[in-house]
Amino acid sequence: MNNSTNHQERLLTIIMGPHLSEKTTVVAEKLNQTVFKVRVDANKKEIKQAVEHLFEVKVENVTTINCQGKTKGRGKMVGKRSNWKKAYVTLAMGSQIDFLGAENS
Predict the structure, then answer these.
(1) Are 87 and 66 in contact, with CB atoms under 8 Å apart?
(2) DSSP string covering 6-68, please?
(3) C-beta neighbour count of 15 within 10 angstroms
(4) Which among 18, 44, 81, 94 could bridge 69 via Cys, Cβ 3.0 to 4.6 Å?
(5) DSSP 3-state assignment of 89?
(6) Range of the structural domain that residue 74 is part of
(7) Are the beta carbons of 60 and 91 closer than 8 angstroms?
(8) Domain total for the chain?
């Protein structure tokens, strides 16, 4: 029972939010995909379960990309942004995630 509860809590923390850009808008229209920023330690199976649980849609495929943080400098100080992970989630035909509709409800 406790292990199941921990798993459900982890699913809620996997998706950090949608990743919106020109490319993701084009991909959403053409390939019925949605792009999310996800935890670095999340795997494809967990991402699929999290999307299906949170948005109540059917997921066909998940593709992940590890993005390296940029190195930024300001004078002599040099810093690095955190690495992050992006997930392209292909939805089943007829399934759709509407972020604007969810906020207005």
Answers:
(1) no
(2) HHHHHHHHHEEEE--SHHHHHHHHHH-EEEEEE-TT--HHHHHHHHHHHH---EEEEEEEEEP
(3) 21
(4) 81
(5) strand
(6) 2-104
(7) yes
(8) 1
Return the pLDDT at 104.
46
- Residue written as token pair 């992006």: 86
Whether the CB-CB separation of 59 and 1 falls below 8 Å is answered with no
Length of the chain in terms of residues written: 105
Q: Is the pTM of this model over 0.85?
A: no
Query: How many other CB atoms are found less than 10 A from the CB of residue 38?
Result: 26
Whole-number Cα distances in Å, 31 to 35, 46, 81: 11, 22, 30
Which CATH number belongs to the domain containing residue 42 in this structure? Answer: 3.30.70.330
Q: What is the pLDDT of residues 49-104, one digit of tens each?
A: 999 999 999 999 999 999 999 999 989 999 999 999 999 999 998 878 776 654 44
